[in-house]
Model the fold of this input.
Amino acid sequence: MAKTTYRAFQTVGDGRLELVERPIAPPAPGMVRVAVEACGVCHTDVLTVE
Done:
């Protein structure tokens, strides 16, 4: 069964992140969808949120 949603973190202000669930949009013509199994967060990403 194909997944119809994905989970992501978004900034919600004052240095906080919130886990949200969003619908998966079909790829546009000539594009592909890539499944991400893991993701890192570097120090500069943290500074951007703050």
Observations:
- The longest helix spans residues 43-49.
- Residues 5-49 form one domain.
